[in-house]
């Protein structure tokens, strides 16, 4: 049995992770940490009866419980400190918190170079990992691309980590193939500032939608001469992220240092 602790246990994703871990026959939920719900019953907050009876307010409970793997779904500033703490204490981490920039990830890479490993993914849905791989394969053969990402109205960062990682991989694939620059943006007069969205790596435009009723969705629209190609992924329930989270928990100890995304775990 692999011993697991969850940080951000009282949040929407934290509750889903606690439920998934407690229901897995080869995993044991030994600690649930969330300062905003410290002292409350895990069963009351998350409906989870297995595991610790009470939510802790301190990350120190991770080592006290003998956790081997920490799952972090908090906020970017807290996640960075949590990652550093886990590296210093030799605890593996699976992190799905978004908003970590390249500079932060480089710091994380340095921390997890010897004593423990980390998997950091902007999206743990298996379908999202396949979507990114498909976009990567398409990038060298197209003239232009735009990304539309749509999320629920409680998401704090924009554009999403998934869209940024997708674009990064598309750009890398295009550069590797020597496909040349993307087609230039024809817009000469942006009547309303921001109408064309944000310009990400390589000049690709990305558009962020935030609305109640949505969860996590992304569409890449590729333009070629006389045709278009669209690749879209939709998560309608947080349960869609759990197979990827559980896979990462089971595999993180075998993946030295920092692994970004699910691609390596899925052999993509």
Set out the fold topology:
Layout lengths: L1 E6 L4 H11 L4 E7 L8 H5 L13 H5 L4 E4 L3 H13 L3 E4 L6 H10 L6 E3 L5 H13 L5 E8 L9 H16 L21 E2 L5 E6 L5 E9 L2 E9 L6 H10 L6 E3 L2 H4 L2
Parallel strand pairs: 1-2, 1-3, 3-4, 4-5, 5-11, 6-8
Antiparallel strand pairs: 6-9, 7-8, 9-10
Helix pairs in contact: 6-7
Give the tags.
32% helix; five-stranded mixed beta sheet; six-stranded parallel beta sheet; 11 strands; elongated; 268 residues; alpha/beta
Short description:
The protein has 268 residues and is of the alpha/beta class. It is 32% helix and 23% strand. The mean pLDDT is 93.
Descriptive report:
This protein is of the alpha/beta class. It has a six-stranded parallel beta sheet with strand order 2-1-3-4-5-11, sandwiched between helices. The chain has a five-stranded mixed beta sheet with strand order 7-8-6-9-10, with helices on one face. The longest helix has 16 residues. The chain is elongated, with a radius of gyration of 20 Å. The mean pLDDT is 93.
